[in-house]
Specification:
Layout (H helix, E strand, L loop, with lengths): L32 H26 L6 H24 L7 H4 L3 H32 L13 H27 L3 H5 L9
Helix pairs in contact: 1-2, 2-5, 4-5
Length: 191
């Protein structure tokens, strides 16, 4: 060990400088219906999967319904989580063109993107109702319930996404996509 630096023996780094510097962001807890619904579904799904594991590997006598309900619960969480993603504006997006555009062009591109997302989610919500209606005659494999219940949860998630997208579109349209254009590249780290 080198005597110059009692912390780690590295003579290039002064002893007073910390090795790692971490800055925590302020945690903001939001209470939205889709957050609570996803929270409850997540823990219900965790209990069902644990029950499946316990009965299959510990008791050696698996409950047949746990796998099917877990699969459908995961589908529900996916679409309800989609509403959270739309609300937080954390959709996957390619912003390369926006990075190199003027503010005016970026605002137009953001408006086109919002309209496209609104159209796509509205179409998704429409088709989710159609498939829910069509699946009313089909029964689940193990549990004697109609498959329309599964697809009704997916439709509910699609309509939550649509409501959040309409809210996002309205907020952006009211200020002419100015705030959205100013936030391009937030969180972008270039090393």
């Amino acid at each position: 060990m080198n005597g110059d630096n009692p912390v780690d023996g590295d003579p290039r780094r002064p002893a007073s400088e910390p090795l790692i510097v971490a800055h925590d962001q302020e945690v903001v807890i939001e209470h939205h219906p889709e957050d609570w619904l996803a929270f409850v579904l997540f823990w219900a799904l965790a209990i069902i999967v644990f029950l499946q594991f316990y009965t299959r590997y510990i008791l050696n006598d698996s409950l047949s319904w746990t796998e099917e309900i877990a699969r459908y619960g995961l589908m529900w969480i996916t679409f309800i989580g989609g509403a959270i993603v739309v609300r937080k504006k954390t959709n996957i997006a390619v912003e390369l063109l926006l990075q190199f555009s003027s503010r005016r062009v970026a605002r137009v591109l953001l408006a086109i993107g919002d309209v496209t997302q609104l159209f796509f989610i509205a179409l998704l919500a429409y088709f989710s109702i159609e498939i829910t209606d069509r699946m009313s005659l089909q029964i689940m494999t193990v549990v004697d319930w109609p498959m329309s219940w599964v697809y009704a949860g997916i439709a509910f998630g699609c309509f939550l996404m649509l409501a959040r997208q309409i809210q996002k579109f309205w907020q952006n349209a009211r200020d002419g996509w100015r705030r959205a254009a100013e936030s391009i590249g937030d969180g972008l780290i270039i090393d």
